[in-house]
Write a structure and sequence with these properties.
By secondary structure, the protein is α/β, with parallel strands linked by helices. The protein has eight helices and nine strands. The strands form two sheets. The protein has a six-stranded mixed sheet, with helices on both faces. The protein has a three-stranded mixed sheet with strand order 4-9-8. It starts with a strand and ends with a helix.
């Protein structure tokens, strides 16, 4: 029997949208016999170098750490699970969604969705081009497979790890991994990475070390308002990203559910 886990992070102030999404993940996990862990209190508390960072001093001072890197706590569960999915707390899972772990065969250690390959709107294509130019153009030693839509990068709001991913950590704990010198500028938010999350860091890591990666269908991480409405209805996982830009900051959950045809 394969031991499977879904890991989520929900630290800080509670959100009606996040709790609704987490509840949908809990129901999904129960349906498919998947363990489900929600981290409610920070453990890693990854901070920045005050002499090296470009990040907002107010944002860093408010908590004293960067909550986004708490997701990497999931790595420690590869000691006890065969497969681990890390799912952002703003992702809603439909009732009829199939088991995502069936997408990951043994030859892959990592799985995620390439953002530019989603069926996205023309307006969002422009955003991706600008975003990738800022985030990845200075990282010239990795092959980002540039084309007219920008760089090939994975949206790390939803990622699946097979047990084989563990060997790429080289025996490091999640905190030791994030504190690698090669990641320092990403964590500190130096230069173009001022607003970066763990997404840039992990994409760099995946590319640099040629980690066997399965490119998953957009249906497993369908970006709300970025994916075209007709394709949104085909999706299994809907990602309400950029919450602060949503009407009522995403707290009008009933309306959002209607918008996605749920």
């Amino acid at each position: 029997m394969v031991n499977k886990l879904i890991f989520q992070v929900a630290v800080g102030k509670k959100s009606k949208l996040y709790e609704h999404c987490i509840d949908s993940v809990a129901a999904y996990a129960k349906k498919h016999d998947i363990d489900h862990i929600v981290l409610r209190q920070p453990k890693l508390r990854i901070g920045v170098d005050p002499f090296n960072t470009n990040r907002s001093k107010e944002a860093v001072a408010r908590l004293g750490y960067l909550p986004i890197f708490e997701k990497e706590n999931a790595f420690e569960y590869l000691d006890s699970y065969d497969q681990v999915a890390i799912i952002d707390s703003d992702i809603y899972i439909r009732d009829n969604a199939p088991d995502i772990f069936n997408e990951m065969t043994d030859e892959y250690d990592f799985g995620a969705v390439v953002e530019r390959q989603m069926p996205i709107t023309e307006a969002y294509k422009v955003k991706i081009r600008n975003y990738t130019r800022m985030q990845y153009s200075s990282l010239t030693k990795q092959d980002w497979k540039w084309n007219e839509d920008g760089a090939e990068f994975y949206n790390m709001g939803m990622m699946v790890l097979n047990k084989g991913f563990k060997k790429h950590l080289k025996g490091q704990t999640p905190k030791e991994f994030l504190n690698r010198l090669e990641f320092k500028d990403f964590v500190d938010g130096v230069g173009p990475w001022k607003w970066s999350t763990d997404q840039t860091l992990l994409n760099y890591f995946i590319k640099k070390y040629n980690i066997p990666t399965k490119q998953l269908s957009f249906k497993w991480n369908s970006l709300y308002t970025a994916v075209t409405p007709e394709k949104q209805k085909e999706s299994h996982f809907i990602h309400f990203f950029l919450k602060d830009h949503l009407p009522n900051k995403g707290e009008n959950v009933d309306q959002l559910m209607k918008d996605i045809g749920n």
